[in-house]
Specification:
about 400 residues; alpha/beta; 13 helices
Length: about 400
């Protein structure tokens, strides 16, 4: 750390929308929390809903959540803790504001004059799907917005300038992905092109599932040997997902894979595709970043990203992966056909992607970024080589 004396790490009151559901927000939170713990922070977590409690949260759950958050805040105030409040979803902002106001209003002489930072995290569809009322509230509310990519930050600009903290992986996830064996450098097509896509299965349409399936089906009809595996968290509240009604011999659907199962899928894949749609309004969807693109890169798998949205922050165009020009089946089909016919170039994309992700998303690099964004600390940042991009 730069300087003679390391500052004292604050206590973090962390407000979460869910626990154990295994989605992108929880993966993001895990990375931030691990980095904060490594710097000596004490973490105090309050969760609104348990996994799969239904999309609508009952008012009693909301009341219990607010009460628990105030109880934790009261305990922190009694021990005069230097506290920051982190709301990991904009829907939790009213409770976060209440808790931060409580802590500010009950400061003692020992902590008088200290601010109680309140930071609210935004991601993607929660921004461009927000109503006018929410946007006005964000504009006047007393909190500092944090988001995950420049694309999301631009979409949030009317609510104020947001801090940017891209997602990171836990050290265990990072290390196990890097430990996967290096891929052979192919010179000519050998066997089927094995395509992998990972997303929450309930979001099949928003994640571009129909377009991906149609592109693979068209290429197979033209004689290309391509298989597709789709894996992701399954919601037990949905008795039969749309994916399970599909009966293609070349399609495999894997529900809620474990970490080890997901590693095996990455290791077996030749190409990773995330074809998320970008939509605004009542049916808003889109990628604010796309952490699975980084996971694929660390595994050495070349990526095809969404045409639009924040996914472009998770790869380097033409160096670690490719992006279609638009969301059409034809655009995606063209990239898949190129990948099938050019194994050598495809292998180089995967190799360079692994080198880039290994340095840019290392635990040390992420710890430095969290320290800068959340605490204003300047740590000794790792040097990222650009040689792999040549």
């Amino acid at each position: 750390m730069v300087g003679d004396e390391a500052p004292k790490a604050p206590d973090l009151l962390v407000l979460l929308p869910s626990g154990g559901a295994g989605g992108g927000i929880e993966a993001y939170v895990a990375g931030v929390v691990e980095a904060a713990l490594s710097m000596g922070c004490s973490i105090h977590t309050v969760t609104l809903a348990t996994p799969y409690g239904g999309r609508a949260v009952r008012w009693r759950q909301q009341l219990h959540f607010a009460t628990q958050a105030l109880r934790v805040a009261f305990r922190l105030q009694r021990v005069e803790a230097d506290t920051q409040v982190l709301c990991f979803h904009p829907g939790l902002a009213p409770v976060g504001m209440m808790v931060a106001a409580f802590l500010r209003g009950r400061t003692t002489k020992a902590v008088a004059g200290r601010a109680v930072p309140l930071r609210v995290f935004f991601y993607g569809a929660d921004i461009w799907g927000a109503s006018l009322v929410k946007r006005v509230f964000w504009r006047v509310a007393r909190f500092e917005p944090v988001t995950i990519s420049g694309f999301s930050g631009g979409a949030l600009a009317r609510a104020g300038n947001a801090l940017m903290l891209a997602p990171g992986l836990t050290a265990h996830r990072y290390q196990t992905l890097l430990a996967l064996p290096a891929r052979p450098q192919l010179e000519s097509p050998t066997g089927a092109l094995r395509v992998l896509s990972v997303f929450r299965l309930a979001d099949y349409r928003a994640k571009g599932g129909p377009t991906l399936l149609q592109a693979v089906e068209h290429l197979r009809a033209d004689g290309h040997d391509i298989t597709l595996t789709i894996a992701g968290v399954a919601d037990p509240a949905l008795e039969v997902s749309e994916l399970h009604r599909l009966a293609y011999p070349w399609l495999t659907v894997i529900e809620s894979p474990s970490h080890d199962e997901l590693l095996r899928l990455y290791a077996a894949a030749d190409l990773f595709v995330l074809a998320t749609r970008l939509r605004t309004g009542a049916t808003a969807c889109g990628e604010g970043f796309g952490i699975v693109l980084i996971e694929a890169a660390l595994a050495g798998v070349p990526v095809i990203t969404p045409a639009f949205g924040g996914g472009h922050a998770a790869f380097v165009e033409g160096v670690t992966g490719l992006a279609p020009v638009d969301e059409s089946t034809e655009a995606l089909e063209g990239l898949l056909e190129w990948a099938a016919a050019h194994p050598r170039e495809r292998s180089h994309l995967g190799l360079r992607g692994r080198q880039w992700a290994r340095e840019a998303f290392s635990p040390d690099a992420y710890r430095t970024r969290v320290a800068q964004v959340l605490f204003g600390w300047e740590l000794d940042a790792p040097v990222i080589s650009h040689l792999m991009l040549s």
